[in-house]
Amino acid sequence: MFRRREPVPFAFVAEADKFRSNVTPPPRERATAGQIMGRTLIGLTVVAGLVGSLLFGMPAMSAGQSPAKTQQSEASDGR
């Protein structure tokens, strides 16, 4: 049912690492001005979102301030 595979000779693996193709890949296309502007706007949007979340989240994370008035439920009022 299960067949054992033949081991691959190590020389074959070593030769495969040395193999170099003589075919050069085509040169990469340069990004257009619109693509560069789009990527820049996306990056700035992400950075602005992170900075905004830090600015709005810092007051909530500060432990030095205590609430001015503690909330109590109406059930605790002695009627």
UniProtKB/TrEMBL annotation:
Region (Disordered): 60-79
Domain of life: Bacteria
Name recorded for this polypeptide: Uncharacterized protein
Polar residues biased stretches: 63-79
Ranges that cross the membrane: 36-56
Record's keyword terms, sorted: Membrane, Transmembrane, Transmembrane helix
